[in-house]
UniProtKB/TrEMBL annotation:
The keyword rRNA-binding does not apply. Residues 25-180 form the F5/8 type C domain. The lineage of its organism: Eukaryota, Metazoa, Ecdysozoa, Arthropoda, Hexapoda. It holds the Pfam family PK_Tyr_Ser-Thr. This is Protein kinase domain-containing protein. It comes from Laodelphax striatellus. Keywords: ATP-binding, Cell membrane, Disulfide bond, Glycoprotein, Kinase, Membrane, Nucleotide-binding, Receptor, Signal, Transferase, Transmembrane, Transmembrane helix, Tyrosine-protein kinase. It is a single-pass type I membrane protein. Its main location: membrane.
């Protein structure tokens, strides 16, 4: 007991092992700096002591200026420079240099190979790249440093660099090894062998460096611990082969329906948790395991004691890969065994990482016996993680085993019976609700009177075609606002706090009040849908528009209208356009009823264009008075994506284009949205007024974009095509974010296909969207940074104008691997340094380090205030 307490006290002084992040694992390991002593740098031979291995340090001019082997290098000659790192490191790169010797040297290695060793390996391992090649390109002169990012990386304690040449030549070299210490402590793991998914897609553990048998792999490390996370789409080749990063097993190869993995560690450890990164591409029969049983052992022979059992709730909504973290309740072990049960045909893993702490050497070993009472704790996806203190080890007499089984069987039957009764009651209740209400999706046909009443400025909302984005006051109509030295701006800061973001319930209630001004109007609308055709009389509606107004005394109190049961909103709708729910985030949007817009109320002005999603047309509504019309745009909507439109109709923000309704007569139906583009899109405004637009006006428009995106972020929604071309500019330079540019042939070259996927705006997208097809709120933050770059560059060039589309994708690969070759957008001429700094924050590789739109809006709100103060 004393030894155990002493060990627990010492654990606080021992560094805790955590999962790898390759972006922080590419540092020099001590050859150039001298951190590695000369005794740890050896060689097979040296030409003379003056060019011994101690001189083979990168960028160091000492003695002869490098290491030179005794023999000339040719086919069959083996010479090497050996580096001893003392402890196990993850090696991610190698840098080499020739012998410069203050201009006197002439020798360098054109090519070289690598070998490595660590405790647990029986012999030195020949390093192979992801494509199977062993030879690595070296130097072409004596002074230039050539650095290579190793793909895949490897775990090593000692490394050998072997010069290579087909023809005889004299070589000398200086070198540095790049990487980081490996603290997780995994010495090796054992996994079953499995065939690849299909020809051309390698889903075996091809980088495994241990022993390979016909049935299993043992004694080495590979893909499951190298820190490389596979993408959601394992069939997508991002430059390192299809299937890179994944190891897969098929259920028909395992009669017991589970895969067994055994991990061995360097010392006895106290385990806090395990994280398993698994694929969930269920359309391809790949799912996260249904159950994980985790056992522990000190000596690796007996896995006695408590078994952690974890049940995973299947997810058939989101296809993205994810981390499953399981609490291990501070088990003490040196060996950890996993049994992962199949939920579908395939289990596909990328990384298995542990949170653990090594125990001191004087920790007393437990007595290993082949038999022990096993205690199983089950954790479901939503269950509370219970403490082990609530469980005791109870040994039951063998004679009572039969009675326990009977009790368990009876309890199970009772639980199943109660669940059946509950299910029947739920189904009957659901049917009763459905029979008591209209079954159609669209309950509210709209005559033109109601159509325009719904667009009036009520409850502080902005009138269509005008009004300020953040103020209830009317904006100045003088277009000199952004050009005159005495411009009068709308102060979006003075009133921003007066119009806080309302809750979903408030939006639904107040928007319904706009359309349904009193109970009679609401009743007549519902009745008309059930008993009359959808067409309405536009002329009659226009005639009566001026005779009725919304009165507060007619507004019904405490009434809310919902379109569907709340539980349906838990699953995000299928999105065909670019505003969609964020991956891996809860669905927060409320879906509201769609207002039916009669076809005769829409007069088509022109067809904007079409794309793979659908077609967009610009329409004009029938005149309400003699001198005013309303422009809207209609886009085709797939019938199966009506919920997407309901979601969009529930959004209400001054800087976001609003959904006005749906026109059901075309096939497919049209989604009708406002088109407040009095001045055109933001690209045209910037290009046509580049000589007269002032910096303060640009800040004014950028702040509005940030405000609209802050609202989308609050709903966990992303905009996959955020760019200046999708920002519509109204009178007084008000901005509304739309999703229309993809159909505009003017911007067709802004979109490019990626690996067979539909065209995407790759110059505005972050690396995770380009390579992994992953879209989150932080992805929209990246696109916002590019949009700010467009605005402050006055849209004179596309982002990365000097790169082709293929080079943009290659640049995303450099960002993915945190390479030094990645290119970033330069600072525009009229961009202040502090604004450029927040732009570069938006472009950080790590999504967690990018700012939120709440922070961005706060920054630009202050900048806009400062700009207005300077006028």
């Amino acid at each position: 007991m004393l030894l155990t307490l002493f060990g627990l006290l010492l654990m606080s002084t021992i560094q805790k092992a955590s999962s790898l992040y390759l972006g922080d694992c590419h540092h020099p390991l001590g050859m150039e700096s001298g951190q590695l002593a000369d005794a740890f740098i050896t060689a097979s031979s040296s030409y003379v002591p003056n060019v011994g291995p101690q001189n083979g340090r990168l960028k160091v001019e000492r003695a002869g200026g490098g290491w030179c082997p005794k023999l000339q290098i040719e086919s069959g000659v083996r010479e090497f420079l050996q580096v001893d790192l003392q402890t196990t490191h993850l090696v991610t790169g190698v840098a080499t240099q020739g012998r410069y010797d203050h201009g006197r040297g002439q020798e360098y290695a054109e090519e070289y190979t690598l070998e490595y060793w660590r405790p647990g390996l029986s012999d030195w391992i020949q390093y192979r790249r992801w494509d199977g090649k062993q030879v690595i390109a070296g130097n072409s002169d004596t002074s230039t440093v050539v650095s290579h990012r190793l793909m895949p990386p490897f775990f090593a304690t000692q490394i050998r660099i072997l010069p290579h040449s087909v023809h005889r030549r004299t070589v000398c070299l200086r070198a540095e090894v790049l990487g980081c210490p490996y603290l997780e402590g995994v010495v090796s793991y054992k996994i079953p062998a499995e065939q690849s998914w299909e020809p051309g897609i390698e889903l075996g553990d091809v980088t495994y460096d241990g022993e390979r048998h016909s049935t299993h792999l043992a004694g080495g490390l590979g893909r499951l611990t190298d820190g490389l996370y596979g993408g959601d789409n394992f069939k997508l080749d991002i430059g390192f082969g299809k299937g890179n990063g994944w190891v897969a097993w098929r259920n028909d190869s395992f009669p017991r329906n589970y895969v067994e993995l055994i991990f061995e560690f360097d010392v006895i450890r106290n385990f806090s948790s395990i994280s398993i990164f698994a694929n969930n591409w269920f359309p391809k029969n790949v799912q996260v395991f249904s159950k994980a049983n985790i056992q522990f052992s000190i000596g690796g022979k007996y896995y006695n004691g408590r078994t952690v059992s974890y049940n995973y709730m299947p997810d058939l909504s989101l296809e993205n890969a994810r981390n499953i973290t399981i609490n291990l309740h501070h088990h003490i072990a040196k060996f950890v065994k996993l049994h992962l049960h199949f939920a579908s045909r395939w289990i596909m893993l990328s990384e298995v990482t542990f949170e653990s702490e090594p125990l001191p050497q004087n920790y007393s070993l437990e007595l290993e016996t082949p038999g022990s009472v096993e205690e199983i704790v089950i954790f479901s996806g939503d269950a509370v993680d219970l403490s082990w203190d609530t469980y005791g080890t109870i040994a039951e007499p063998s004679g009572s085993q039969g009675s326990i089984e009977i009790v368990i069987g009876v309890l199970t039957a009772v639980i199943l019976l109660l669940l059946s009764v509950f299910t029947i009651i739920l189904v009957l209740s659901r049917r009763q609700k459905l029979h008591g209400s209209p079954t159609t999706i669209l309950r509210n046909p709209l005559n033109i009177k109601d159509f325009f009443l719904n667009l009036t400025s009520v409850n502080g909302m902005v009138p269509v075609g005008g009004g300020t984005p953040c103020s209830q006051q009317a904006p100045p109509s003088d277009p000199s606002m952004c050009f005159s030295t005495e411009a009068q701006y709308v102060d979006i800061n003075a009133t921003a706090e007066k119009d806080p973001i309302r809750s979903d319930d408030e939006y639904i209630e107040k928007d319904c009040m706009n359309v349904f001004a009193d109970d009679d109007i609401y009743s007549s609308n519902v009745y008309s849908l059930q008993n009359t055709p959808l067409k309405a009389s536009c002329a009659q509606s226009v005639h009566s528009l001026g005779k009725q107004t919304l009165s507060s005394e007619h507004i019904p109190k405490k009434k809310r209208y919902h379109t569907a049961p709340r539980d349906k909103h838990r699953v995000p709708p299928e999105a065909s356009w670019n505003i969609s729910p964020s991956m891996g985030q809860p669905y927060r949007c409320r879906e509201v009823e769609l207002t039916v817009v009669p076809r005769e109320c829409l007069s088509v002005l022109k067809t904007l264009g079409s794309c793979h999603i659908g077609e967009v047309v610009i329409c004009e509504t029938e005149e309400v008075d003699d001198d005013k019309t309303l422009h809207v745009y209609a886009r085709s909507q797939r019938p199966e994506c009506i919920r997407e439109l309901r979601m969009m109709a529930g959004l209400s923000d001054p800087n976001l284009v609003r959904v006005l309704g749906i026109c059901t007569e075309p096939n497919p139906p049209w989604a009708v949205l406002e088109y407040p583009a009095d001045l055109g899109d933001l690209i045209k405004v910037l290009q046509n007024n580049c000589q007269t637009l002032k910096y303060s006006c640009l800040m004014f428009m950028i702040t509005q974009i940030a405000s609209g995106m802050k609202y989308l972020e609050s709903k966990n929604l992303v905009h996959k095509d955020l760019a200046a071309r999708n920002c519509l500019v109204g009178s007084s330079y008000t901005i509304k974010i739309a999703d229309i540019a993809i159909c505009n042939p003017t911007y067709q070259k802004d979109y490019s296909e990626i690996g067979g996927r539909p065209p995407a705006p790759i110059r505005w997208l972050p690396w995770e969207s380009i390579l992994l097809d992953r879209y989150t709120c932080s992805s929209s933050v990246w696109a916002f940074g590019v949009t700010v770059w467009e605005v402050l560059s006055l849209a004179k060039d596309k982002p990365y104008p000097h790169l082709t589309n293929d080079q943009v994708i290659q640049n995303a690969e450099h960002m993915f691997y945190d390479s030094e070759l990645q290119v970033q957008l330069s600072k525009p001429v009229m961009c202040p340094l502090e604004v450029y700094e927040i732009m570069t924050d938006c472009w950080k590789r790590d999504q967690a380090l990018r700012p939120t739109f709440k922070h961005i809006y706060k920054f630009f709100k202050q900048k806009n205030f400062d700009c207005l103060g300077e006028l």
